[in-house]
Amino acid sequence: MQTRPLGTGGPQVAPLALGCAGMSDHTDPADEADAVATIHTALAAGVTLLDTADFYGMGHNEDLVRRALRADDREKVLLSVKFGALRGPDGAFVGIEGRPAHVKNALAYSLRRLGTDHVDVYRPSRLAADTPIEDTIGAISELVQAGYVRHIGLSEVGPETIRRAHAVHPICDVQIEYSLFSRDPETNGILDTCRELGIGVTAYGVLAHGLLTGTYRHPAGGDSRAHWLPRFHPDNLATNLTLADRLRPIADARGISIAQLATAWVIAQSRRCGTIVAVLGTRRPHHVEEALVAAEVTLTDADLRTIDEAIPPDAVAGTRYAAPLMALLDSESGPKPSVSTGN
Asked: Which CATH number is correct for 11-332, 3.40.190.10, 3.10.180.10, 3.40.190.150, 3.20.20.100?
């Protein structure tokens, strides 16, 4: 696959990245052999950016990535690691931490679990309400200077936070949910800010947590998505599945699936918004192989207009998360007042 820099001065990346969360945090835990095979399939195809976090499986995911990487893999793999989400013994999320001491402590444990002397992109998973972003990014900048981190990223933050962070140290990329069903980054200034500052975007949730696979129909037993993803609530699900089905004739005309078309659409937004990488969240090798097709699909401007007409940005029913989770997203909360760092 052709590569491109992830932001000005960032590492070279393929249009697809592999999100590893589902290999550790899921109601139906992944078979480790399948998870390892998924990572190997991605690497063999030229996908080098692996996205993980210290709180995925409370360390399990980083251990898994370490076990999956073979002796000669580390030189070609880019490890993107999130930190800051705190969990209790029962697995519940209990807070967001961004203080400098925590930043450095968290990285120390991540390096040990990953079996490496550096991570390629290090990012706070959310904006910590009680810590100025300048302090958090300043601590990571010190880790860059010490050689433990190569690049700094952000996740789920709005334009003002992006600018404040970038003023402390160049930001490589912003990780944000972005798909045909989640298009707020187009209108809330996030994509515009990233383009202006030369910051890349790693887009997760490109298949809308399954709604854009073209195969999801009704909740299976034990499917808890409706509790924390309003778009899966019975009041919204029928509308959203109807919208997804509007992509079927467009995909059929190209001989690809709805999922492949939805992924190709995200990748194609690089033409409008700068470098955008689609993060494929999977734990099955065949899903990687299917997504590779999307990376080779070329959508014309006419194609993009047809897709936009099929799924207007304001037609999706329900917010992307339940209210308590939405409240944690700086990317959704609008402009912020400046916060003194005490310096």
From this structure: 3.20.20.100
